[in-house]
Every structure is written in C-alpha cells, then in structure tokens.
Amino acid sequence: MKLRTTRITCLLLLCLLFTDARAQELMTNVYGRQLQSLNGKWDAIIDLYNQGRKNKIYLNRKPQGKTDFYEYAFDHGLRLNVPSDWNSQMPELKYYEGTVWYARRFDAPRQADQRLYLYFGAVSYRCRVYLNGEEIGSHEGGFTPFQIEVTDQVKESDNFLAVEVNNTHTTDAIPALAFDWWNYGGITRDVFLVSTPNVYIQDYFVQLDKEKPDQIDASVRLSEKVANQMVELEIPELRIRQRLATDSEGVARASFRAKKLQRWSPEDPKLYQVVISSESDKVEERIGFRNIGVKGEDIYLNDRPIFLKSVSFHEEIPQRRGRAFSEADAVMLLSEAKALGCNMIRLAHYPQNEYIVRIAEEMGFLLWEEIPIWQGIDFENDDTRQKAGYMIREMVTRDKNRCALAFWGVANETQPSAPRNEFLKYLIACCKEIDNTRLITAAFDLVRFNRESQVFVMDDPFIRELDVVAVNKYMGWYHQWPVTPDKAIWDVARGQPLILSEFGGEALYGKTGDADIVSSWSEDYQATLYRDNIEMFNHIPNLRGVSPWVLFDFRSPFRFHPTHQEDWNRKGLVSDQGYRKKAWYLMKEYFESIQ
User: Fold this and answer.
1) Vertex 14: Cα angle to 367 and 360 (nearest 5)
2) Contact 238, 258 (CB under 8 A)
3) Which of 474, 476, 403, 415 is CA-nearest to residue 442?
4) Mean pLDDT over residues 486-497, rounded?
5) What contacts 287, CB < 8 A, 6 or more positions away?
6) How far apart are CA 243 and CA 230, in angstroms?
C-alpha cells in the first residue's frame, strides 16, 4: 500500500511538473533535433548583492535622453564562455558563490509550422530565464537539462536573452550545504534553440525486454494527444520496420522479435541506427540492446554473471581546474578509465553531461548514474523531496535509451531514519514509473566491525529495497584495521550482490614516504592501502564489483592541508596534472586478474 501511495504521489507530481510553464517536459534526444547553437561568448555582470532583478537589468535598457542613466551595462564589459563554469575563467571568480547574469543576442528565422524551444544542458545551480524583457522560465538543479518553449516570444531577429544564475549552496538544495567537490557556477553545458514541427516526436523508449534476448519493447509519444497517427520505427541493419498507430494519448506501443540481434556488452559495444518517423517528424539515433538483472548474489549481463571493474570521476578536467563539458573532455576522462581496465563508470555524484554518457556507451562502459542525495539532505522537507523527484525524472528521461546505463543511484552515505526511507522509496518509484528495467542501487557508509563475531556487518534494513547494495568503506584511511586484511571477513547484504563503491586514501603525486605511515601523504602509503584492500576483497563472499575513489584528484574546499591538499582531494589514482600514481598500477593489475 505504501509503495502504491508513493507511486500515485509521484504521478501527481509529474502532472504538476508538466502543467507548470516554468518546468516543461523534456524532449528525448535533443542532439538528434534541428539545432541552432547558442554557445560562445556571452556578456556577463557579476551581481554581488543580488540587485539585478530589482533593477530589471534583463530589460537591457539604454539611456534615451540627456538625463537618463543606468548603473549597469552588458555591453563592453565582462564576457564569459558558454558552456563553462565562471570559477575557472577569472582568478577573481575562483571562489565566487552568488549571482552572475549572462546575456546574448540571437536571430531566430523560422517557418510558420515550427515550434521553438530554448534548451539548456545544465545551469548551476538555480536560474531564471528572460527573453526580450520577459521572464519565461526557471529551473533548480545544477546537473540536469531543461527546456522552455519560446515559439510565441521570439522575433525573427535581434532577440535578447538573459539568464540569472546563482550557485549559492543552501540547506534545502540538492546537494545541500556540505559536499566534497567544487561548487562550480555558471551555464555549464550546451545551450540550443531547438526547432520542431507543430506536432513532433516528443518522447520514445526503445529497449530490449528485461529478460528476453530477442524482444524489443518500444513506446513513442507525440507532443500532442492525437489518436490514430501513424508512427514508424525502423532498425535497418536488423531489417525491422514497424508501423504503429497512436492511442488517444498520442502514444504508440509495440513489442516485436528481433532476429540475429547482437547484444551490447563492454567487450563488443554494438549500437544500431534507429529511425523513428511520424507524419510530420523524424528522429534518428544509435541505440544498443542488452539484458541486465540480478539472480541471488550475482549480477547478470546478457545471461552471464559479470564482475564490475569500476571507477568514479567527477565532471571536471583537473588540469584546467574547470567543469568538463565537451566531447574532447569526455574522451580524456573515459580514455584514462579504459586504460585502467574498467568495464563500468560510477558517474559521481550527479548526472554528468551527455557527451560523457554517450561516448562511454560507445567505448563499452556500463554506467551508474545518480542524483546528488549526498549526506546532509533534509529528508523531512517536502519541497526538497519534490526537487529530488524532478531531478531524478530529468536524469532518467534524458538517458533511458542508453543501454550502457545499468544502475540508477538514489543516495550516497545517508543515515537510517523513517523520513530517509520514505524519501528514497519515493525516488525509486519515480525511476520505475519511467523505467523499470534498470537496477536500483544506493551507496552506504554504515559497515562496522563486530568485535564479538570478528566480522564486518551493516545494519540497515533499507537495503532490501535495492537490487544491488553498495558500500563506501575507507579501510586504512578513515578506518584503521581491526584485524589484518587477510582476516577481514565480511557478512554484509548476504543474498544480494555487493559493490564496494568507494575505497582508497590520499597521496600527493611524487611524494615519497614511509609505506606504513598514514600521515606521510605518500604514494607509498597509498599503494600499501590498495594492496591491503585488494586482499580484503577475497573475504567478501558476495562481492560483485569494486570502484576505487577516485580516478583523478579533484578540487574541494573540504581539503585545506596547506602543503598536501591545497583545496584538492588527493585520493585520485591520477594526479591533477595527469600523472599516474603507484596505486593506479596496482588497480590495473587487479582488474587484469579478473576474467
């Protein structure tokens, strides 16, 4: 009954979301649409005291008479790159949290039968959008996309677009006040003007059945509730052409056999060209097909058990000290994971940009994607819960056609309580209303050593709500060894697959020191720590994956040791300059030993 109530609440929230002009439903596969890029140099104003809205600077007024003046101007002032964060573009903005106004002009030539949308890949963290002097939309959440229809607001030429961006972290935000990564602000991902027909293909979900290796399930939804419209789905390489008719909701569904289908896997990441056509629209993209599930303590990919050789990274280019946002950035991050021997990436701790997700799929990485429910969340705040619901829906909607997505993550390092449990159940229900084929997971930091039984245990009944249980445990760093690693026996989440989702410790690249002294901050101690953890893995009977924390050193205000950290978390296997530490080679050897 509780789960049903949660699902009904989730659906009601979805209805509210879709009828709110400020939070419009996303179209699937924006990169497959007719696009006009609005990337490039934007004019900017730093609004230290949040006076811009009060003074209506989005009107961009100019003095008209001898006595007119305004205490602001977008012209001939600061200019910032979009997409990018502002912190990495000017030394004065390195630590800045607050409001920055962005503005640019654009033309919008269009045909009479077209609709136009402004699409933002992500804006960190809150924003209001103004077009030609009118507020047209707003969004909260720094890592998911949003769109606003502007068909009736745009002019053929000389449109003035202003975006008020604020990255101040607050108690009701997601993430909340404290989080262990850099709080980059800005328009951090692509901005597009998207053109569509009046009735267009708004959404589709094309996937392999959760269990059947040759059954494709497809649903297509038009932007309007138009019945008896013909929709065609074609996969040329498989000689599949299905003609479907929409129902009264504008939705067409079908399930059909696919002969000689080659399933996607990390070893052979096969993708097929899929073409979806309606009477007025056509969308194409490359989609892969695979089965993933759980049987007892094993994770099965395409009917075979798999061990997840994973690693995490932040959406950051450490050498540039800025957000990753481009295809080149994605290739850099993922190539280092490929060299390490990984078959999975945990995209920590938030949905990362679509280039990373799509290129990871092409390179053969399974993916774990999550929203930043990271410690400190106010689980009793209903507004926060609704925000989380919006975010996880935006994440799942964007990436549900990516077969590489294996896990939806709903939390990281949260403490047990009744409000937390209901909050997370709600997020699980929100995921499953859109996609019930992926595995649900969450990462916990609650494992403790029971001195009476001399084993590691964890007490949190909520794990039974999950398909796969994940644990962060920093043995040898935050937790000293109560027994030697060869006697570190685990009895955690028995009967379910377990992933060690974070482990490791900090080391400054090039620093040598005693291999048994934690405070040496040395590569030598980090290597010892990794050897010990690798030994411990042998004594976790239901271990089905490991993911060291983290691939690259990353920026974090939490880390202020004056000589060893300097605002960097040094747990990376690779330094902020791109140099591999000794522990990198140990993990590579370990991954190579697993068949």
Assistant:
1) 15
2) yes
3) 415
4) 98
5) 206, 271, 272, 274, 401, 403
6) 7
